[in-house]
Write a structure and sequence with these properties.
The complex is a heterodimer of chains A (544) and B (424). Chain A has 544 residues and is an alpha/beta fold. Chain A has three domains: 7-103 and 177-453, Glycosidases (TIM Barrel); 111-163, Oligo-1,6-glucosidase, Domain 2 (Oligo-1,6-glucosidase, domain 2, Alpha-Beta Complex); 461-542, Immunoglobulin-like (Sandwich). Chain A has helices spanning 18-21, 32-37, 39-45, 80-92, 111-116, 178-194, 219-235, 249-252, 270-280, 284-292, 319-329, 345-348, 353-365, 431-436, 441-453, 457-460, and strands spanning 13-16, 49-52, 96-102, 130-131, 152-155, 160-163, 198-202, 240-243, 264-266, 301-305, 312-313, 336-337, 340-341, 369-373, 462-466, 473-480, 483-490, 496-500, 509-512, 527-531, 536-542. Chain A has an eight-stranded parallel barrel. A five-stranded antiparallel sheet of chain A has the order 15-16-17-21-19. Chain A has a three-stranded antiparallel sheet with strand order 4-6-5, with no helix packed on it. In chain A, α6 runs parallel beside α7, α9 (270-280) runs antiparallel to α10 and α13 packs parallel to α15. The longest helix of chain A is centred in the middle third of the chain and has 17 residues, at 178-194. With 424 residues, chain B is of the alpha/beta class. Chain B has two domains: 11-283, Spore Coat Polysaccharide Biosynthesis Protein SpsA, Chain A (Alpha-Beta Complex), CATH 3.90.550; 302-423, no CATH class. In chain B, 52% of the residues lie in helices and 11% in strands. Chain B has 17 helices and nine strands. Chain B has helices spanning 11-20, 38-52, 71-77, 107-120, 138-151, 168-182, 198-205, 214-217, 219-229, 253-270, 272-275, 302-305, 309-323, 326-337, 345-361, 366-388, 393-423; strands spanning 25-31, 58-64, 95-100, 125-128, 155-160, 184-185, 194-197, 234-240, 282-283. Chain B is globular. Mean pLDDT of chain B is 90; it is low at 82-88. Classes of the chains: A alpha/beta (544), B alpha/beta (424). Chain A binds chain B through residues 276, 280-285, 288-289, 292, 318, 320-321, 324, 468-472, 492, 494, 496-498, and chain B through 15-16, 18-21, 54-55, 57, 85-86, 88-93, 95.
Chain lengths: 544, 424
């Protein structure tokens, strides 16, 4: 495991849900002991960091993001000792582990909230945000539009409204209260002292409320986050904080501060535009958003991804773009939730291997640290009828046998049903069968990661787009000191020819990185390439 | 760069088109020294793509006839109007190509290039605009394209919002003659702007018209006639008022008249097999809401009308004797001899019909025949305006409709004479 304090800049992250990964005790729900048995798989895939979804005690009304205790493990997942054993085993395999830190809110079953609502005089009262009316902070957008009608909910016990930017059972913490800030730092410290390597911090833009504002991205919110970062840096080194701030790039920029806030942040606006560019067969949306992305401090890094445990969010797109994405990727109304699409990668791409490869090729070559969502490496499907976002959180499909090798429980006892249709069902899509043939998606993904790892240019290099006349071809240079990689992608379903202006690189030899084939030397004339449907090239450019 | 004789598309243009690929909506804008007006047209097209066709693959093709005023550079360099849709939220890359066309000078070669590009790029819908017009709006493009793209029409003719006494060359000859011949009530058969489908443009490209004399000045008419005669599903789309500044390079009226009327007569030659057997007329569907016509009549160039018809008739008697039937010439001489010229509908229609037959028979130079009609036309206009220049628009419309019906009544006689020509 690396000691580089900037390890996250080169990380390739594997995001998983303990509940859905591997069940060791046959209760139908994944746990840490089960996860520990699968660490070799994760290591062999080629990733180096694991991001675990919330593992804390919770009533599970929001799949664990409604936390009832910040310093314990949910009994269904095991014990604290199980977690320690998992952590040690991961570290022994060179895998870092980041866990969730849900700062913005707790479950209404958290002891703090139970106490807070006992009376208006309770010491914990001020740990949450209360109001006599539901008219404060009027106009602030509702995030879970499918289920919530207001950001305020009436508490009949204490006869006041409490503020919640998410579900009504997730009251927002009051970060104007120093005690809350200190307590959350203590929660962080607890896990850091156990050995976790960092946190993915949930819903960071919403920590502070102020009248007359959108209650998002406020300067005071950044003060809170800087406070937590200061405490982290004073306490330990080599840890990482990853911000979930679903905002435009110029707004997310502030979450990096001057290198004194978050180490990483997700690049949310990039993700839907990758899907858009593919469907449009036009690089424009992708190039536009990357060129619009501001520079970040040298110690910071973007987190980029194709899919995750949530819906494919369409918050950071225009209305025209949103309508287009819905029409093209979510024709079934049941696939739409909140402001997004609750589908996995493979179903979104209609199981098309070529498109899946292209999108992964983009993920691994665009600027940022890539995050792979568990199951997407084998092309798992989804179930939009499971409610909320559960359809993309179904059990990992290890084998074609009993419960896909996920659990020994009776199938009816599984916490989440398996995907079982003929196209994506576990009998057809599983790790075991994909291990058996060389050209499976699993093995291809593993090779892709290996090639990505062969050069830091992908993780730390600059990005310069070329603008060939053929808009269906995306071409860009990744440069890190003397090293240069040329990436060329055909976003179209049809074969394409493209002429690239590479005069400034005249004399260099492009060497294709997967097969190491040598391509013609670059000269003064436009460099002509032809690409098959959804094809892509990574060329290492060498002067030989 | 050597362009083979039979190539419509230069290598440079082909290279550009390779980059563009397949297109859903193509807007063609022929130009020749339109630097003063082309900017607003290009901006309107760009805005139309954003507002009405945001998901479509689009291309603006400027087919240029060798402008020396920088028109092509202007077209390429016009930036998207920041006042409309935010550029960063436009879904697709905007493609704009300006390319010189080759072949016969004139509109026909430009159109051929546009339609060939549309064919190559598999454009689902094509609209052609005039770079001279200052009143083009994004809605023009939508009106011409949507009936093709969404309602499967093959040809869309425009309707302009005109005062009834505006465009008398159209209302006195072109419209009623085309209506009587082709049997469809097309208001603007000579329109530069039109929309069309892949099916229709492929058909047009396959016709042996592109190197003919008609291709120089009569393509607009031929396109309309071809759509109607070949049975393509056609409609009309209201666009609004059409204003184009007068160009100092514009030919004199007799030349314009000869080009237009010669083209009408030429089209009737080409499409004779169709219209000779067509009877009556039917309304052509209108897609979209009509615009209110301007309330003010256009300013008439009185100088053009002050030439005395009587003098011209005297000078043209020998020519007219070979063109007109004796009774028509006699009636014309009598009308001119009176105190007040009353060039009736019946007489005018007979005049036009007999000129048409003469043109068809080629009894003398066809250019001479059409030019001989000029003073008669001016006399007819003077006569018409003396009755209707101050009339209510509805009354003028009624008079024009009456004229159309007179042309339709004349048709059997024309058909008989035409067929007699064939027997000869």
């Amino acid at each position: 495991m690396t000691d580089d304090p900037l390890w996250y800049k080169d990380a390739i992250v594997y995001q998983l849900h303990v509940k859905s990964f591997a069940d060791s005790d046959g209760d139908g729900m994944g746990d840490f002991r089960g996860l520990t048995t699968r660490l070799d798989y994760i290591r062999d895939l080629g990733v180096d960091t694991i991001w675990i979804l919330p593992m804390y005690p919770s009533p599970f009304r929001d799949d664990g993001y409604d936390i009832a205790d910040y310093t314990a493990i949910h009994p269904s997942y095991g014990t604290l000792d199980d977690f320690r054993a998992f952590l040690d085993a991961a570290h022994a395999r060179g895998l870092k582990v980041i866990t969730e830190l849900v700062l913005n809110h707790t479950s209404d079953q958290h002891q703090w909230f139970k106490e807070a609502r006992r009376s208006r005089d309770d010491p914990k009262r001020d740990w949450y945000v209360w109001s006599d009316t539901d008219e404060k902070y009027a106009g602030v957008r509702i995030i879970f539009v499918d289920t919530e009608r207001s950001n305020w909910t009436w508490d009949p016990d204490s006869k006041q409204y409490y503020w919640h930017r998410f579900f009504s059972h997730q009251p927002d913490l009051n970060y104007d209260n120093p005690a809350v800030r200190e307590e959350m730092w203590l929660a962080m410290k607890f896990w850091l002292d156990l050995g976790v390597d960092g946190f993915r911090v949930d819903a960071v833009p919403y920590l502070i409320e102020r009248e007359g504002t959108s209650c998002e991205n406020l300067p005071e919110t950044h003060d809170v986050l800087k406070f937590l970062r200061r405490r982290l840096d004073e306490h330990c080194t080599g840890k990482m904080l990853l911000a979930e701030a679903n905002q435009w790039p110029e707004d997310v920029r502030h979450y990096f501060g001057d290198g004194d806030e978050f180490h990483m942040a997700f690049h949310f606006p990039l993700m839907p535009r990758m899907f858009m560019a593919l469907k449009l067969e036009d690089r424009k949306p992708l190039v536009d958003i990357v060129e619009r992305t501001p520079a970040i401090p040298d110690t910071c890094q973007w987190g980029i991804f194709l899919r995750n445990h949530d819906e494919l969010t369409l918050e950071m797109v225009s209305e025209t773009e949103r309508a287009y994405m819905y029409d093209e990727y979510a024709r079934e109304p049941g696939a739409r939730i909140n402001v997004g699409i609750r589908r996995r990668l493979a179903p979104l791409l209609e199981g098309d291997r070529r498109r899946i490869e292209l999108m992964n090729g983009l993920l691994m070559s665009m600027p940022g640290s890539p995050i792979i969502y568990y199951g997407d490496e084998i092309g798992m499907g989804d179930n939009i009828y499971l409610g909320d976002r559960n359809g993309v959180r179904t059990p990992m499909q290890w084998t074609g046998g009993w419960n896909a090798g996920f659990s020994s429980a009776d199938p009816e006892r599984l916490a989440q049903p398996l995907i079982s249709n003929p196209l994506y069902g576990y009998q057809a899509v599983n790790v075991d069968s994909q291990r058996r043939f060389e050209h499976s998606l699993l093995n291809w993904t593993s090779r892709l990661i290996k090639v990505r790892r062969s050069s830091h240019v992908f993780s730390r290099g600059s990005t310069t787009f070329l603008h060939p006349a053929n808009h269906r071809v995306l071409a860009f240079l990744r440069t890190l000191e003397a090293e240069q990689v040329l990436v060329v992608c055909n976003l179209s379903s049809t074969a394409q020819a493209v002429e690239l202006d590479l005069r400034h690189l005249a004399g260099m030899l492009p060497i294709e990185m997967f097969g190491r084939s040598v391509f013609p030397r670059i000269g003064e004339l436009p460099y002509m390439l032809t690409l098959g449907s959804y094809d892509f090239f990574w060329f290492r450019l060498r002067r030989l | 760069m050597r362009v083979p004789e039979t190539s419509v598309l230069s290598d440079d243009l082909v290279r550009d088109l390779m980059a563009v690929g397949q297109v859903d909506v193509l807007v063609g804008v022929p130009t020749l020294n339109n630097a003063g007006t082309v900017t607003s047209v290009v901006r309107a097209v760009s805005a139309a793509f954003d507002q009405y066709f945001p998901r479509d693959r689009t291309l603006l093709l400027n087919s240029d006839g060798g402008s020396t005023d920088g028109t092509p550079d202007l077209v390429r360099g016009i930036r998207h109007d920041a006042g409309t849709v935010t550029v960063s939220h436009r879904l697709r890359t905007e493609h704009r190509i300006s390319a010189p066309y080759h072949g016969l000078p004139g509109k026909g070669s430009a159109l051929r290039q546009i339609l060939t590009v549309a064919d190559l790029t598999q454009a689902r819908a094509v609209a052609v605009l005039d770079a001279d017009v200052t009143t083009v709006t994004p809605e023009w493009i939508a009106a011409l394209v949507r009936p093709v793209r969404d309602q499967q029409y093959d040809y869309v003719a425009p309707i302009y919002a005109r005062h009834p006494t505006d465009g008398l060359l159209i209302s006195q000859i072109v419209r009623p003659l085309m209506r009587a011949a082709y049997g469809w009530e097309v208001r603007e058969p000579l329109a530069v702007e039109f929309g069309c489908s892949t099916r229709f443009l492929t058909h047009c490209l396959g016709q042996d018209i592109w190197t003919s004399e008609l291709a120089r000045y009569g393509m607009d008419l031929w396109i309309t006639g071809e759509a109607l005669s070949a049975g393509f599903r056609s409609c009309q789309a209201p666009l609004g008022q059409r204003l184009a500044p007068s160009s100092p390079d514009r030919p004199g009226f007799p030349d314009v008249f000869a080009q237009v009327v010669g083209s009408v007569f030429g089209c009737l030659d080409v499409h004779a097999a169709y219209w000779l057997s067509r009877t009556g007329s039917d309304p052509l569907p209108v897609v979209g809401a009509e615009f209110a016509a301007p309330s003010e009549p256009p300013v008439v160039d009185a100088a053009r009308l002050t030439q005395t018809l009587a003098t011209d008739l005297r000078e043209l008697q020998d020519v007219l004797k070979t063109i007109l039937r004796p009774e028509t010439l006699a009636a014309l001489n009598e009308a001119v001899a009176g105190d007040r010229l009353d060039y009736t509908d019946a007489l005018w229609v007979a005049t036009v019909g007999e000129f048409l037959i003469a043109h068809h028979r080629g009894i003398m130079s066809r250019d001479h025949i059409t030019r001989a009609l000029v003073p008669l036309y001016l006399g007819r206009v003077r006569s018409f305006l003396s009755q209707y220049s101050a009339a209510a628009p509805a009354d003028v419309d009624a008079a024009l409709e009456s004229l159309c019906l007179e042309f339709e009544r004349m048709k059997p006689g024309v058909v008989a004479a035409w067929r007699e020509t064939v027997k000869r």
